Amino acid sequence: MKKLILSVILLGFLSISCDKNKCAECHYDGPSGEVEMGTYCGDELHDLEDLGTFTDSLGNSFVVHCGEH
Amino acid sequence: MKYLLLWAAAFASSPLLAQQGITGIVLDAQSQKAIQGVLITIPSFQIQVRSDAKGQFSFPFSWSDQQALRLKHPDYQIMDTSVFGNLSNLRFELKLGHMTTEEVTVSAQQVSLRAKNTVPIEVRSINELQLSGGMHVAELLTKIPGVYMSTLGNGIAKPVIRGMQGMRVVTLVNGLRLEGQQWGGDHGLGIGELALGSAEVIKGPASVLYGADALGGVVYLQDEPYARIGQQTLDVQQKWNQNTSGSTSSLLYKKSQGNKRILVAGSYANHADFQLPNGLYAKNSRFHEWVGKASYSWFKPNQIHQFRYAFNNTVAGIPGHTHDSLATPLSFQVQTQGRKYSLPAQFFTNQLLSYEYKRFWTGQEFNLLLGQTHNRLVEYDEKVTKPFMEMDLLNSIYQAKWTKKWAQQQLIIGVAGMLQLNINAPIAADQLLPDALTFDQGIFGLYKYELSKAHMLQVGLRQDVRWIQTQSDSLFLQRRYASPNLSAGWSWQVNSFQRHRLNFSSGFRAPHLSELLANGFHHGALRYEIGDSSLVPERSLQLDWSSDWNTEHGSITVNPYHAWVRDYIYIQPNGNSIDGIPVFNYAQLELGRMYGLDLSAHYHPHWLHNLHWEGNFSYIQFESPQDSAISLLPPTRLQNEIQYHWDFNGAIQKIELSISHAWMAAQTRVSFQETPSESYQLLHLNARCYIEKKGIWMLQTGLRNLTNSAYIDHLSRLKNIGMPGPGRHFYISLKYQVQQQIKD
Predict the structure, then answer these.
(1) What is the pTM assigned to this prediction?
(2) Which residues pair with residue B171 across a beta bridge?
């Protein structure tokens, strides 16, 4: 029974551990509306959000949003 | 109805249980026949046993002092008595009857009957409150007169006591103070319904009992009792809510054997966006929640040890976010119900660890409570990988008190303290509050004197000190706040059915770090906040009178109150905006008066035995020479509920049906630039069925907001965006409990 109690406590601590491999769908606000960029995960997602913008082939920069909102 | 305390320590002629500890027998007062199934509880020890077929029971331990005992059986009047532990072969005689009696309370720093306390305490069983079909603890508590709830969608809610909420309401779980960044209107209670047994609410200042911050009141939540000695139980429950397409699954295991007891529980809830009366969905109002609890207790003669651990992990969407430059209410309402995690979102985690020790001597008792809590609040606004705000709040708490009882007097002397550390994570994009250390220390004394059987006096004194110091090089602040507090009460039991109570209490609340030093976006609250480091502590003095009339078939309580409030801290818009977000400043009202009336009534006719009508009325006003009103002042409210139950002898044991109606008045007494609210009504229908077949089944279903009213509650943080509450919907819940006797 002590094992069961410890398991519950361990579950509690595990539940608050960070999920380092997050994934999210990203899009940018283009001139004609939202343009889907697909799903990014982990470091790629991190780098994209850090950059914050997407630059198209014409050199136009658009704000990137990840995580539907 | 006459209530007799009739017991005698007599040697019974029938054979006694040959066990150590205390034994006894329970008989019908008229027929002298043994009563099986009487639940005998010692509230101080949180221990229960049940009488067997011969009416006999035993506690496998003894105590040297006098302890309160409660004997309860559905067909008999509840008996409250007190027993010395050095006696044995106890004999109790119960009288037939069905009216409930006074509840046992623990929130006033002592285990006592509500009748033996001058402090205004309301006690409710969580199981009874759950018949209303409420979604969370804060909503369940709204059945209590004077108690409301403040919400931000479905996933975030907290109680409001006589207009006071957040930092002005101290919440305790099994005596341990809950610290969960309650300064934020978008930060919920952080505790689920899982394994909760009862809720006590102290309305008004309770700083003598619980120190600084208890200016508005106290919510004391207590877990379910452990399993009866010699028993293990397993509860499994599944709930489904149509409005959110939401599900809650929970498991609860309890075992009491010999002198050891354990309780282990867990639950998971997942709710999508809630549906509005117009058929659309409240965008990003989804949430999911993990809750876990474990308790372990053991007792020896005259002492009890108890360890408890609980965690609550909630991920909640924060509704009210849009990129529309010209937002309308429809900007926040969508056609598709969403469930997946989406921005902006709040990750809220609470962990509570406590150890409690009780030691009893003749006429004395010592209690020690040590606790460690950890709250982590993470808010993601625009980025998934980088939180906008991330704070850890670590609290180390202690309380030690000594109780002395003699003749008709009782004295409690105690000390309590808390060391709190607030830490911002470096990864966060912004810091609304700096890192800071807070240290609270208080010393208190409570004295109770029963002048006679009819009159009782209670006086309390407390001195508190709070130190706050920031841990930031760029923003240094050091403050010390100290204040004495006093409470005095008198109760008069006029006769067996009439009682009056007068209580005077003071409250004190030091300004919080957020009020002193906030300087940044608080996206969850949809505002930019600016603190004021010159704020001084709030103070309150409340006079509370209550008159109770209780008969076998009804009760009425009239409870007017009046509080003077000094230096009330509030927040209001200054007319500016930053990046389109309105800017709010903290300020102070020099003087204000909060007064009101709580009424409640219960009727239970003799000619229709199974019918119950309960009604309550709450009225609150606030006046100040400086402003029209404070923000989020609860409107006048009238609630009525009619319950009827049928009892059966077959597999179906009982069916309960209730219909409840709530009327909320319009609220036009608002603060500067606050949105007023219109009046609304809500009608709910709930049904519950108890079945005994290879265990106990409880099936509950209900229809909420029957008329599909498009209401906007005044205390909803979404009223500014015109977001109504949930539309008409139904829910269903199935609970199964199996019990097993185990050998010692």
Answers:
(1) 0.89
(2) B219
ipTM of the predicted structure?
0.74
Question: Residue A68's closest chain B neighbor by CA?
Answer: B342
- Please give the pLDDT value at position A1: 55
Name which of B202, B203, B175, B180 is nearest B191 in CA terms: B180
Interchain pair B290, A1: CB under 8 A: no
Strands B389-406 and B176-177: unpaired
Contact yes or no for A15 and B290 at CB 8 A: yes
Of B264, B293, B349, the CB nearest to A4: B264
Q: Select the residue from B311, B383, B388, B394 to test the A interface by mutation, using most A Cβ atoms within 10 A.
A: B383
How far is residue A55 from each of residues A20, A24, A30, B383, measured CA to CA in Å? 27, 19, 10, 18
Number of alpha helices (DSSP H) and beta strands (DSSP E) in chain B: 4, 43
Q: Are B285 and B153 in contact (CB under 8 A)?
A: yes
- d(C-alpha B457, C-alpha B462), whole Å: 17
Q: How far is CA B203 from CA B122, B146, B675, in A?
A: 8, 8, 26
Quick check: B415 pLDDT over 90? yes
Asked if the model's pLDDT at residue B133 lies above 60, the reply is yes
The number of beta carbons lying within 10 Å of the beta carbon of residue B44 is 20
Contact state of A8 with B383 under an 8 Å Cβ cutoff = no
Give residues with Cβ within 8 angstroms of B549, minimum separation 6. B497, B498, B555, B556, B557
For residues B586 and B676, give the distance between their C-alpha atoms in angstroms, rounded to a whole number.
21
Residue B223 has pLDDT above 50, yes or no: yes
- B284 neighbourhood in chain A, CB within 8 Å: 69
**Pairing relationship of beta strands B478-495 and B455-470 according to DSSP bridges:** antiparallel
pLDDT greater than 50 at residue B72: yes
User: Is B296 at the interface with chain A, CB within 8 A?
Assistant: yes
Are A24 and B384 in contact (CB < 8 Å)?
yes
What pLDDT digit, counting tens, does each position of B382-392 carry?
A: 888 889 889 99
Give the burial string for B110-143 (b: 16+ CB within 10 Å, else e).
bbbebbbbbbbbbbbebeebbbbbbbbbbbbbbb
pLDDT digits (tens, 9 = 90+) for B56-71: 998 877 776 777 888 9
d(CA B642, CA B644): 7
- Residue B116 is predicted with a pLDDT of 73
Report the residue from A5, A49, A67 with minimal CB separation from B262. A5
Q: How confident is the model at residue A16 (pLDDT cuts 50, 70, 90)?
A: very low
Residues 6+ apart with CB under 8 A from A18: none
> Which of B161-199 are b and which e, b meaning 16 or more Cβ less than 10 Å from the residue's Cβ?
bbbbbbbbbbbbbbbbbbbbbbbbbbbbbbbbbbbbebb
More confident residue, B293 or B118: B293
Distance CA B561, CA B620 (A): 9
Average the pLDDT over B238-246 and give the result.
96
**Residues with Cβ < 8 Å from A6, sequence gap 6 or more?**
none
Average pLDDT (B36-51) is 85
CA atoms within a 13 Å half-sphere pointing along the CA-CB vector of B147: 27
Model pLDDT for residues A20-44, shown as the tens digit of each residue:
578 888 888 888 888 888 899 989 9
CB B294 within 8 A of CB B744: no
Q: How many Å lie between the alpha carbon of A11 and the closest alpha carbon of chain B?
A: 8
Residue A4 with chain B: CB contacts under 8 Å: 264, 294
**Beta strands B39-42 and B47-50, pairing class:** antiparallel
- DSSP helix/strand/coil, B477: coil
Task: Determine the Cα–Cα distance for residues B629 and B711; give it in Å rounded to an integer.
Answer: 22
Is B623 buried (19+), middle (13-18) or exposed (0-12) by CB count in 10 A? middle
Three-state secondary structure of B585-649 = EEEEEEEEEEEEEEEEEEECCCCCCCEEEEEEEEEEEEECCCCCCCCCCCCCEEEEEEEEEEECC
